């Protein structure tokens, strides 16, 4: 039985506005100490240098918050030790595939849940390695906030942040995909004797870059941590934290997580769910999909259209935070168990929407873009990859319409010959297959795009018409 639509909207608004409810936010964990090492051909030799990275921090944080029990922790410790990778024990439960554990890197999006006093946090542990940037894009497109984990050891932060390093690209990607809040966890400070000067040095480098990338200083936080020992994640007590306490008395990482601003949820507009994963459901004919509700509300028993294509399916059940629920609203990362459709008729990046409010399909459209720090200019006829949520498709810059003043929006030059780094421009883009797109003015999350070429992100922008 489905809820009456009006009552359902009222209930969703009530929960969204309630002051005493634990607010839900999604946070993508990014960090790339390994990416630059791989570029220089040192992956095998320096594998141990990532043992206190983002997955380690997240694993230890789960333990501190009671989401990882002692039995599982000991099992992870034994498993990593028997594989000769004992320093990876905290990441063992997150890097779940055999290949991830063998290589010591995160390759896909790991979804976890954490609870603080005032926040229910869905954590998307995104790959830091340059080979898995599309997976990172998929994770960031589902997030409200970012937790950037940087390596404070000598040379490692510089390698990740220098031109070509993944830290810069990850931050630009996250901001371009609508992530407005960022917490920077400066990790491995225990390996530099909890040096305050090293901490301040890294903060000084990152602050202007974050501001230039579009992160407002009021939405940016820095925190010193030691992930393996759990120092300053939830607390900083004991002798091992004494050196940090000499100069730092600010919030812990959990304090900052608990203060994240939950964004306004767009529950009254038409339902939009870009599919990020497809897997076998319960029952012989069932198929399940997961993704983030960008807008609207979905409820069990509802028939939804899948675009592109002519197929539709019925929502048999809904899971949020590993619990079956009768409905889910915008902002939720949900799993929908579907009937009446075969898995072959579903695709990563396809969008679920109501039969009465279909999302438009685009093959040629105009976009306003910002060009990143590129070496080879963009010209008319450039072949690129367009990324939109979990979908990436071949595309072409059909026409360079104009360059634009970023602050005023006024046209600087019409029909430019090339677009160089730092340029804002309006371009016409052509796609090989049609994909679901909505103008940025209608739905910001469905209107954002990223443009890549040759394994490099070269621009980000907004779909206009």
From TrEMBL:
Molecular function via GO: GTP binding; GTPase activity
Catalytic activity field: GTP + H2O = GDP + phosphate + H(+)
Gene Ontology biological-process annotations: cytoplasmic translational termination
Localisation: Cytoplasm
GO cellular component terms given for this protein: cytosol; Dom34-Hbs1 complex
Origin: domain of life: Eukaryota
Keywords tagged on the record: Cytoplasm, GTP-binding, Hydrolase, Nucleotide-binding, Protein biosynthesis
Keyword Protein biosynthesis attached: yes
UniProt key word Ribosomal protein: no
Domain Tr-type G stretches: 39-265
Pfam families xrefs: GTP-eEF1A_C, GTP_EFTU
Family recorded in the similarity comment: Belongs to the TRAFAC class translation factor GTPase superfamily. Classic translation factor GTPase family. EF-Tu/EF-1A subfamily.
Subunit structure: Component of the Dom34-Hbs1 complex, also named Pelota-HBS1L complex, composed of dom34 and hbs1.
Entry protein name: Elongation factor 1 alpha-like protein
Organism name: Laccaria amethystina LaAM-08-1
């Amino acid at each position: 039985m489905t809820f009456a639509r009006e009552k359902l909207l009222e209930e969703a608004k009530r929960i969204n506005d309630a002051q005493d409810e634990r607010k839900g936010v999604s946070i993508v964990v990014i960090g790339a100490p390994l990416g630059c090492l791989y570029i220089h051909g040192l992956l095998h030799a320096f594998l141990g240098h990532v043992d206190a990275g983002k997955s380690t921090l997240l694993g230890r944080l789960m333990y501190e918050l009671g989401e990882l029990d002692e039995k599982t922790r000991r099992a992870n410790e034994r498993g990593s030790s028997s594989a000769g990778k004992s320093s990876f024990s905290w990441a063992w439960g997150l890097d779940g595939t055999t290949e991830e554990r063998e290589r010591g890197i995160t390759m896909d999006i790991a979804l976890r849940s954490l609870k603080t006093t005032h926040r229910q946090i869905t954590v998307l542990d995104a790959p830091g390695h340059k080979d898995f940037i599309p997976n990172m894009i998929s994770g960031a497109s589902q997030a409200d906030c970012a937790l950037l984990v940087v390596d404070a050891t000598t040379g490692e932060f510089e390698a990740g942040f220098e031109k070509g390093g993944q830290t810069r690209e990850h931050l630009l990607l996250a901001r371009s995909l609508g992530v407005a809040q960022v917490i920077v966890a400066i990790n491995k400070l225990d390996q530099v004797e909890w040096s305050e000067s090293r901490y301040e040095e890294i903060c000084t480098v990152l602050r202007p870059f974050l501001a230039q990338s579009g992160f407002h200083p009021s939405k940016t936080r820095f925190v010193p941590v030691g992930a393996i020992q759990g120092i300053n994640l939830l607390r900083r007590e004991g002798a091992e934290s004494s050196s940090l306490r000499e100069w730092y008395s600010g919030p812990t990482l959990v304090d900052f997580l608990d203060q994240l601003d939950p964004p306004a949820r767009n529950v009254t507009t038409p339902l939009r769910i870009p599919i990020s994963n497809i897997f076998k459901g319960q029952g012989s004919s069932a198929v399940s999909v997961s993704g983030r509700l960008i807008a609207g509300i979905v409820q069990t028993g509802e028939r939804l259209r899948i675009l592109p294509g002519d197929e539709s399916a019925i929502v048999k059940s809904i899971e949020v935070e590993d619990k079956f629920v009768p409905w889910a609203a915008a902002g939720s990362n949900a799993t929908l168990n579907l009937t009446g459709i075969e898995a072959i008729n579903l695709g990563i990046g396809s969008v679920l929407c109501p039969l009465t409010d279909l999302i438009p399909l685009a093959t040629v459209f105009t976009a306003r873009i910002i060009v990143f720090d590129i070496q080879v200019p963009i010209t008319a006829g450039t072949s690129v990859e367009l990324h939109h949520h979990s979908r990436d498709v071949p595309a072409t810059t059909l026409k360079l319409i104009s360059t634009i003043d970023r602050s005023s929006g006024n046209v600087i030059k019409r029909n430019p010959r090339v677009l160089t780094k730092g340029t804002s421009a309006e371009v016409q883009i052509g796609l090989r297959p049609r994909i679901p797109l909505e103008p940025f003015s209608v739905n910001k999350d469905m209107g954002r795009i990223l443009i890549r070429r040759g394994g490099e992100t070269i621009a980000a922008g907004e779909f206009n018409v």
